UniProtKB/TrEMBL annotation:
Transposase IS4-like domain span: 100-257
The organism's taxonomic lineage, starting at the top: Bacteria, Pseudomonadati, Bacteroidota, Cytophagia, Cytophagales
Protein name: IS5 family transposase
UniProt-listed Pfam families: DDE_Tnp_1, DUF4096
Domain Insertion element IS402-like: 11-83
InterPro entries documented for this protein: IS402-like_dom, Transposase_11
Domain of life: Bacteria
């Protein structure tokens, strides 16, 4: 019988069987381990989903210092980035696609700063908001491949090089096309993509069109941002480290694919 969850964010038995190998950086019975790894993972998922502070984790979960210390190990080893890569491949195969994409969509969203992230914050004049910019690359199904966190005043086109470099690393140089909006227009952005053998294609609004328009390909990344917004820890930038904000995005997107059960494709 499946374990009864204490919170809706708790990992299920089937999910835990899949994720445990990615998270077990030391043996489960290692002498330095005082709390069950599954309980620590549940606490982390609770925090990212609800947006609570570390010190506000419920008392029936492991103490926040233990959760934070284990999170720092997972973060620095990019455990959720590796997990997401495998889940994304499984999701694509189940959808009848090749395991690795040949096309991606690049975009960015501005996340309001807080006192914790204020040292990194920049002012986004277009959106009239001070905060951080999360630049992402997703495949045509909306699954996350790469993320870069910068001050909000960093131009979108300036992150093309880093995003394209990363997507080629994680896909084995399979990506040929990247779709972008008009914020990526210019020879520098096109050249930065071409260095990594990626053709940057700008999807522009129809002439004279104002307001929101659902554009081919481009709507996919907007939906991905909507998915991310369901995790309250990602609604604002509460993180002192850009790496934390980046890796929380991979945890969120991995959580979504785990909920869909794509990992069951690996079951005998």
């Amino acid at each position: 019988m499946a374990q009864q969850s204490g919170y809706p964010s708790d990992v299920t038995d089937d999910e835990w069987m899949f994720v445990a190998p990615y998270l077990a950086l030391v043996r489960e019975d290692a002498p330095q381990r005082q709390h069950a790894l599954r309980d620590v993972f549940n606490a982390l998922r609770y925090l990212v989903k609800t947006g609570c502070g570390w010190r506000y984790l419920p008392h029936d979960l492991p103490p926040w210092p233990a959760v934070y210390q284990q999170w720092a190990r997972w973060r620095d080893n990019r455990c959720f980035e590796h997990m997401m890569a495998d889940l994304r491949e499984l999701a694509r195969v189940l959808a009848g696609r090749e395991a690795e994409p040949t096309a991606v969509i690049l975009d960015a969203r501005t996340v309001q700063s807080t006192p914790e992230s204020g040292a990194r914050a920049g002012y986004d004049g277009a959106k009239r908001r001070k905060g951080s910019e999360v630049h992402v690359a997703v495949d045509t199904l909306g699954h996350l491949l790469a993320a870069v966190v910068t001050p909000a005043n960093a131009p979108d086109r300036g992150q093309v090089d880093a995003l394209c470099e990363r997507v080629q690393q994680v896909t084995g140089q399979k990506v040929a096309v990247a779709y972008v909006d008009q914020g990526y227009t210019g020879e520098d952005a096109a050249y930065a993509a071409a260095v990594h053998d990626v053709d940057l294609q700008v999807i522009a609004k129809p002439a004279g069109q104002t307001g929101f328009v659902m554009l081919p390909r481009r709507w996919v990344v907007e939906r991905s941002f909507g998915w991310a917004a369901r995790f309250r820890r990602l609604a604002r930038d509460y993180e002192r480290l850009a790496l934390t904000m980046q890796q929380f995005h991979f945890l969120a997107f991995a959580t979504l694919l785990l909920a869909k059960g794509v990992f069951r494709a690996t079951s005998p």
